[in-house]
Design brief:
This is Rhodanese-like domain-containing protein. It is built from five helices and five strands. By secondary structure, the chain is α/β, with parallel strands linked by helices. A five-stranded parallel β-sheet has the order 1-5-4-2-3. It is globular, with a radius of gyration of 13 Å. The N and C termini lie far apart (37 Å).
Length: 114
Amino acid sequence: MAKKISTEEVKSKLDKNENFYLIDTLAANSFEARHIPGAKSMPYGTDFIKQFEQVINAQKDAEIITYCASNGCQLSALAANALEEAGYTNVGHYVDGLAGWQNAGHKFEGEATK
């Protein structure tokens, strides 16, 4: 089970330019509309691990944090569990996702923010 990551933890890691992968598991059009700065789009689906390994190509011990829309969205939890099952050892799940980021007053990137 991936560790739960808070809004404050994600913001702190970004502010400190820590080396980690922030993975948006929502559909690509959602990512294009708005996403957390620095995130990579990797929609969760049947070929998630295959696509992750081809596109992201992270080391198995790299820090990876997944997120989706809110704590009611299960895509990021499913993605985090799939990553752990595939042998990734430092996986976190940002439970509050986009809703938590917005509620904290943090900025987004994407077409809808322009």
